Amino acid sequence: MTRPLHSSLLQERRAVRTLTLPGLIRLITEIDDNGPISHRRGSLLGAFGDLTPGQLRRAIDTARDLGLVHADQQAPDRYRLTTSGEDLAEVYDTAARWARRHQFPSPTSDFVTRIQHTFQLQGSDPTSARSEQPRPQEALSEWLTAHPRLLHQAGACSSGTAEESGLAA
Questions:
Q1: Pick from 24, 47, 34: nearest CA to 116
Q2: Rounded to 5 degrees, what angle do the CA atoms 24, 109, 161 make?
Q3: pTM to 2 decimals?
Q4: Distance in angstroms (rounded) separating the CA atoms of residues 95 and 137
């Protein structure tokens, strides 16, 4: 009985590791905040000048593999969020709002860092650092439950370089 629980916990941790890739967070939230990214030359790199080409490619590939982004080479709006991508953007927003309100992990943390650290609470004992499970953990659990296919796929997408998968500075 511990084996399925252990396996499911490992899957969840791999999914969280994938969902906290800085490039993926940036891609999903950029499209959510500003609409689809066009096919015009330079618009993709212009929107993500702070990401290396490798981070950006990995984010796009991961988002496509997980079904978070629809990419159409022929359409004027090349990258658009799918329904699950829109749902994930809302989970990211929930995590960032909670972290900002609680100054977690610090008062001056940026958006990506807030999400990464808040998601890292997933699966931890809620009584160890906090008396109640934060709302973002509930939102993330609900999202993972609603997208079980993504939970399994995220594990396959989670292997990457330290630069791509590390916590933001």
A1: 24
A2: 40
A3: 0.81
A4: 8
| Phi then psi dihedrals of residue 110, to 5 deg | -85, 175
pLDDT digits (tens, 9 = 90+) for 29-60: 999 999 998 866 667 777 888 888 888 889 99
Amino acid at 102: H
Place of tokens 């992990």: 105
For 111, other C-beta atoms within 10 Å of its C-beta total 17
- One DSSP character per residue, 75-124 reads SSEEEEE-HHHHHHHHHHHHHHHHHHHTT-S-TT--HHHHHHHHHHTTTS
Q: What is the bridge-based pairing of β-strands 77-81 and 69-71? A: antiparallel
Look at phi and psi of residue 103 and say left if phi exceeds 0, alpha if psi is from -120 to 50, else beta: left
Q: Is the peptide bond before 36 cis (omega within 30 degrees of 0)?
A: no
